[in-house]
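Chain A, query sequence.
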Amino acid sequence: MPFSTERQGALRTSPSASRIAALALIVLAPLALGGCSWLGMGSDEDDVMAEIAAVAPKPCPTVGVLDGADRITVFNGQGQDLTDVVVRAEISKAAIQCKYDIEDKTISVDLAFNGLAVMGPAATNSEMSLKGFLAVTRIDGAKVSKQIYDIPIDFDKERQVRFLKSVEGTVVPYRDDQNGSSYVFLVGFQVSQSQLDYNRKATVGPLQ
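Chain A, predicted structure.
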């Protein structure tokens, strides 16, 4: 299934204690060239190009929210009326940053996604946990990996809350002819077949 291009983002930062918080921003960091001496004047053309390629920014994988898994409605098991809803939630946006390990030929990827959850009339507890996933594929469609994570939701005294989920340190390999742009990272809720069918036929609009 295609992913939602309306919920994509990409950024690049150096590692720091606040790198996950920085995922909320889309940062473009252009490379500043230092001058002729930095470019290695006097060496042959291949050496110059290799030096430039070694320090130039490298692309992160694409990140998106999987269509059909971008929202979830949990019922109490008594039916599918509005009065049977325990919780509704949707993912709003995802962002990604990455770091290349040139020696190991790997890319370490951190990502985060946020969203909104609304407590339904059938809720019996203000603390809940939804299941989310991170699936890694290649642009040719080949599956690489899939991990499932808990998304804790604490309504406290509110009926509507925002949530943020971060997933750090997913490592993928790369080659000289294959970089981060060869991968697609997809996030979503781990929905059952019945929940997926409900998403497809439901006429409710986005959560507010």
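The domain at 3-9+59-201 is CATH 2.60.40.10 (Immunoglobulin-like). The chain has one domain: 3-9+59-201.
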